[in-house]
Design goal:
Strand order of the largest sheet: 1-2
Order of helices and strands: HHEEH
Number of helices: 3
Shape: globular
Strand content: under 5%
Radius of gyration: 16 Å
Largest sheet: 2 strands, antiparallel
Number of strands: 2
Length: 114
């Protein structure tokens, strides 16, 4: 049986995003890929925001266990989600490259190249 995380009530989505966000941040930091993650988030965030807003407006999905705080018509938790997911992907990818000893895994090059 899976644990009942709904015990956090309206903060359930926020708590899970902050938990996974801390994991993503740790991976990004460990791999030295903060700039890479920031660039990825900066590129993906605008279209993700528009898509999220649209799907919420037309009723594709609803989020029952959330705080109710919205920015630009999108729940706060979704904004966090749009940062956490790409950061988690970059952090996981760069950590695995680094652990594998990939010589082409520079992390964040000081010149901004990677």
């Amino acid at each position: 049986m899976l644990p009942d995380i709904s015990v956090f009530g309206q903060y359930t989505y926020l708590v899970t995003e902050l938990l996974w966000g801390s994991v993503a941040l740790a991976l990004v930091w460990y791999a030295g890929a903060v700039r890479s993650a920031a660039r990825t988030v900066a590129v993906l965030y605008p279209p993700a925001l528009v898509w999220d807003w649209y799907t919420l407006e037309v009723g594709v999905f609803t989020i029952p266990l959330r705080t109710g705080v919205e920015l630009l018509g999108v729940p706060l938790e979704e904004h966090i989600f749009m940062v956490v997911v790409p950061a988690m992907v970059v952090g996981t990818h760069e950590t695995l490259r680094m652990l594998r000893g990939d010589p082409d895994a520079p992390g964040d090059a000081p010149t901004g190249e990677s």
